[in-house]
Design brief:
With about 325 residues, the protein is α+β, with helices and mostly antiparallel strands. The protein folds into two domains: about 1-170, Ribosomal Protein S5, domain 2; about 175-310, 2-Layer Sandwich (Alpha-Beta Plaits). The chain has helices at about 60-65, 70-85, 105-120, 130-145, 150-155, 190-205, 205-230, 230-250, 255-265, 290-300; strands spanning about 1-15, 25-40, 45-50, 55-60, 90-95, 160-165, 170, 180-185, 270-275, 280-285, 305-310, 320-325. Strands 1, 2, 3, 4, 5, 6, 7 and 12 form an eight-stranded mixed β-sheet that branches. A four-stranded antiparallel β-sheet has the order 9-10-8-11. A hairpin with a 6-residue loop joins β9 and β10 (about 280-285). α2 packs parallel to α3, α2 (about 70-85) runs antiparallel to α4 and α3 (about 105-120) packs across α4 (about 130-145). It is globular. The chain starts with a strand and ends in a 12-residue tail after the last strand. Residues about 315-335 have low confidence and may be disordered. Bound molecules: (R)-mevalonate (MEV). (R)-mevalonate binds near residues 15, 16, 18, 19 and 150. (R)-mevalonate (MEV) binds near residues 18, 19, 151, 195 and 276.
């Protein structure tokens, strides 16, 4: 049996604007993970995908199975295609995840990434993070409308990234550890719907939205620099500014706003919604001394749960960001 896993993710700054070609910063959340196991099955079984948490069992085989638009099925088919393998395999693929679904934590992309990795290992094939990301992006495109590709990228690389659609992936230098709290509103928020709502607004008034996207782009560039310098006060300030711009985009909600306010009142360095918005998660940048108090403040202000995560400083404290040499192109779907 081969087993692989993949982390969740959060967007630190730049969501939505990133769909329109602007930069965004995202970090992996390694405390929550999706896992996949692949084992050989008895001859003639075909490929069975079992997701116990979701109460799902899919049997690939027959035209219907191969045409399925189910994300798990598309991930398996995309991986077989990418590896140049025939569909005539007998495999049982089991998946499980402790990443909350539809909360902006990248649960779908993480499950797909775990499947791709476990399948590649099963067939003794080495895939680069870029290849894994590209296969998963093919699946994301079926289910998220017009995704930027940031979720599959940060999850496949499992490093903090500065992401611009269609450009080489840049992994970020982190001068000082970032302690983050993720406050879950408990409200699920399908990314596709919120991205679609922003698109309709943008179509009605392109100059206004382009202006907001440009301001968010400036924030992402400044966050990249502040992170490298370990200037957490500046990162926090920029997160606050980004939240205000996301409100102007119309993607916040009363609960997100009150969690962000609660975090600021209790001394967070910065706070904002994270991901698509209109539900999902908010994040707060905190100092270790204030972490416990802030966690309690978020829970008593209506968060369903709070996940604490740390973005560790880059190895050697190196201020130089690493650019992945091969440019990432998401123009070709592999699914
Ligand atoms: C979702 O994690 C982030 C969005 O910007 C959508 C995307 O980038 O595809 C809202």
């Amino acid at each position: 049996m081969t087993v692989a896993s993949a982390p969740g993710k959060i967007i630190l700054v730049g969501e939505h604007a990133v769909v329109y070609g602007r930069p965004a910063v995202a970090v992996p959340v390694s405390q929550v993970r999706a896992r996949a196991a692949v084992e050989r099955a008895s001859e003639g079984q075909g490929i069975a995908i079992i997701a116990k948490d979701l109460g799902q069992r899919i049997l690939l085989g027959g035209e219907e199975g191969w045409r399925s638009s189910d994300p798990l099925a598309r991930t398996v088919i995309g991986t077989l295609n990418h590896l140049g393998l025939s569909r005539g395999q007998d495999l049982t693929i089991s998946v499980e995840s402790d990443i909350p679904i539809a909360r902006g934590l990248g649960s779908g992309a993480a499950v797909s990434t775990a499947i791709v990795r476990a399948m590649a290992q099963h067939f003794s094939r080495d895939l680069s993070p870029q290849e894994v990301s590209q296969i998963v992006f093919g699946v994301e495109r079926i289910h998220h409308g017009t995704p930027s590709g940031i979720d599959n990228t940060v999850i496949a690389y499992e490093r903090p990234i500065y992401f611009v659609q269609g450009k080489a992936v840049e992994t970020l230098a982190v001068g000082k550890a970032l302690n983050l709290l993720i406050g879950d509103t408990g409200e699920s928020s399908p990314t596709k719907d919120v991205v679609g709502a922003v698109r309709r607004r943008w179509q009605q008034s392109p100059p206004r939205y382009e202006f907001l996207f440009d301001r968010i782009a400036q924030i992402a560039a400044r966050v990249r620099q502040a992170m490298a310098e370990g200037d957490l006060v500046q990162v926090g300030r920029l997160m606050d500014e980004n939240h205000q711009l996301l409100r102007e985009l119309g993607v916040s909600s009363p609960l997100l706003d009150s969690l962000v306010r609660a975090a600021s009142d209790r001394g967070a360095l910065g706070a904002k919604l994270s991901g698509a918005g209109r539900g999902g998660n908010m994040i707060a940048l905190v100092t270790p001394a204030k972490r416990r108090g802030l966690e309690e403040a978020l829970l008593s202000s209506g968060a369903e749960r709070v996940i604490a995560t740390e973005v560790p400083p880059s190895r050697n404290g190196s201020p130089a960001a690493e650019i992945w040499k091969r440019a990432t192109s998401f123009n070709e779907g592999t699914v």
